[in-house]
Design a protein that fits this description.
Shape: globular
Order of helices and strands: HHHHEEEE
Protein name: Preprotein translocase subunit SecA
Helix content: 25-40%
CATH architecture: Roll
Bound molecules: zinc ion
Number of domains: 1
InterPro entries: NTF2-like_dom_sf (IPR032710), YchJ-like_M (IPR048469)
Strand content: 35-45%
Pfam families: YchJ_M-like
Radius of gyration: 13 Å
Organism: Epilithonimonas lactis
CATH topology: Nuclear Transport Factor 2, Chain: A
Length: 125
């Protein structure tokens, strides 16, 4: 299958090795893409584990999994990568009522022992 992150590659050659922990995403953009794919699959555990340990208390595996399941994840667009640890993106999805939605966010990431983690995001219009 084509990778849900819209890289144009197959899932096996793109985000799957990150989801199975064979590899770790080398950049914040790669992590961001793999997290979008993890909503599409969905894989709440991966979303939880790639959240910065200090921020995990604001999320739960169950709610991340459910958010992935109830929406239909159609497209990811990377808008900008203004620095090593920031990614601006638009995530397109159809909500449970069938309405098309766009989630536009500037996310901040950080590395801990050479692994990238999602810290937080600012929602944009
Ligand atoms: Zn991918």
């Amino acid at each position: 299958m084509t990778c849900p992150c819209c890289s144009g590659k197959s899932y096996e050659d793109c985000c799957q090795p990150y989801h199975t922990k064979e590899k770790f995403p080398p950049t914040s953009e790669a992590l961001m893409r793999s997290r979008f794919s993890a909503f599409a699959i969905p894989n709440g555990e991966y979303l939880w584990e790639t959240t910065s340990p200090g921020k995990r208390k604001f999320h739960s595996k169950k709610s991340l999994q459910e958010w992935g399941e109830i929406n239909d994840w159609t497209k990811l667009e990377i808008v900008d990568t203004p620095s090593m640890n920031k990614v601006e993106f638009k995530a397109f999805y159809t909500d449970e009522d069938g309405n098309p939605q766009v989630h536009h966010e500037l996310s901040t990431f950080k590395t801990i022992q050479n692994r990238w983690y999602y810290v937080s995001g600012v929602f944009l219009d």
